[in-house]
Amino acid sequence: MLTECAVIVRLTLLAWLVTMLSGCGTLYVAQAARGQWQVMHARRPIAKVIADPSTPEAVKARLTEVSAARDFASRALALPDNSSYRTYADVKRPYVVWNVVAAPEFSVEPKRWCFPIAGCVAYRGYFTEAKARKFAENLRAQGFDVFVGGVPAYSTLGKFADPVLNTMLGYGDSELAAIVFHELSHQLVYVAGDSQFNEAFAVAVEETGLQRWLTLRGHEDELQRYKSRRTRQQQFIALFTRARARLATLYSQKLPEETLRERKKAIFASLDSDLRELEKRLGVRSAYRDWAEDGLNNAHLASVATYYDCVPGFERLLTQHGGDLPSFYAAVRELARKPYEERHSLLCRAPPPPPAQPFGEPPSQPPPAAAPPSSDQLNERR
């Protein structure tokens, strides 16, 4: 684990470099550096937290569970064996980061922000909700569709020893293990500037990892419940994918803005209706209902696409390699070296236009968007 002094030096240099090179991003980068330092400063070894008599029994139980999943990740999933997720940090808030995703009024592609060191990303992450919402309001005033969502965890790509966070403990045991598998996979393969590739790869790893974890522990009932939740989730995602395709077609037409707004509104109303009908048929209240009640927009669709459009391609690739994860990872690294268009044509249902050319790999990379609800969240957050 990095010493606290080393962490300070690294964060200070990062903030100074981006300040010198990005100008108007100074305040944004400064809050990110402060937030990252606060997370690192709050870390304690999990073994000490469990041994501490003042630690609530429920927290001890969750940390014992996640420690076993962390060991499994390196032993059985060939994920990095390092200091990440072997410490615990209580950041005293419900989410570690609030991410802001924006899309133009007549586009399903997310707005991207580019930094000389961090490259181009489709989000802005804030360590305080108030700052995230203030930034979101500024974007709305400029005419953007905006979505603000809390993030329970993020990866620094192995640059720091990421801790298990209190923000992760609000989920069920299966979801907690899945988060660790997902975030560790970002340390294994990462392509600067291609959020869809990175997130879909991590989703594919977390899903196969969770199935293997539950099977090893003999939790067949939970495995079947997970598979059922995943099937339901795919049905909800299909609705978002279909609506996104309809909107992309609409926005490509040369129509008056008022006509575009009317037809856009109708498509989102249809999506809301489809979501309600599917919830009724499945007998669940999905977490997507919260999105619908807040008002669905282009930014929500962009977020779903980032995480799930390319997942089937990764699943096919894993099957082609007989489920052997090291072989699969090697194939993914080969894909990562291919041009954007080529890897997306091989993996994704409908590749979007290539993003702006990044300047280089970011030293710290939270998820590109507040993650869409996972299969464990379709019924309730536990």
Sequence of secondary-structure elements:
HHEHHEEEEEHEEHHHHHHHHH
Going by helix content, strand content and strand pairing, the class is mainly alpha
Tell me how many strands there are. 8
Form type: globular
| Cα-based radius of gyration, to the nearest Å | 20 Å
Helix coverage percent of residues? 55-70%
Protein model, in words:
The chain is mainly alpha-helical and 382 residues long. The protein has 14 helices and eight strands. The N terminus and C terminus are likely disordered.
Key features of this structure:
single chain, 382 residues, mainly alpha, 3-stranded mixed sheet, 3-stranded antiparallel sheet, 14 helices, 57% helix, disordered N terminus
What's the structural blueprint in terms of helices and strands?
Elements: H1 4-22, H2 26-41, E1 44-45, H3 46-51, H4 57-77, E2 87-89, E3 97-103, E4 113-115, E5 119-121, E6 124-126, H5 129-141, E7 145-151, E8 164-165, H6 173-188, H7 195-216, H8 220-251, H9 257-282, H10 288-294, H11 298-308, H12 311-320, H13 325-336, H14 340-347
Parallel strand pairs: 2-8
Antiparallel strand pairs: 1-2, 3-6, 3-7, 4-5
